[in-house]
Design a protein that fits this description.
The protein is of the alpha+beta class and about 80 residues long. The protein has helices at about 50-55, 60-70, and strands spanning about 1-5, 10, 30. It has one domain (about 1-70). The protein is built from two helices and three strands, in the order βββαα.
Length: about 80
């Protein structure tokens, strides 16, 4: 995964079951990999209601478990 922050480029390798958080509007990309790759990309803002609930119902039990598991702040916010 590649992204830009404050004019600098960054890169990280994501392993199976890793998670990443990007703030909105951060330029990013995913480098090509060999073999099969699956990526679940979610944006969950505030309370999940209506259409978001319907979308979550379609992603399957394994991925839905991850949504529940990741309900707390697991990264360190940068101080401005």
């Amino acid at each position: 995964m590649r992204w830009e922050n404050a004019g600098k480029s960054h890169e990280a390798t994501l392993a199976p079951d890793d998670s990443a958080y990007l703030k909105p509007h951060v330029p990013h990309s995913f480098a090509p990999v060999s073999g099969k790759m699956e990526l679940l990309s979610l944006r969950i803002g505030g309370k999940t209601m209506g259409e978001a609930q319907r979308e979550l119902a379609h992603i399957g039990p394994k991925n839905l478990r991850r949504v529940y598991d990741e309900h707390t702040l697991w990264y360190r916010e940068e101080k401005k």
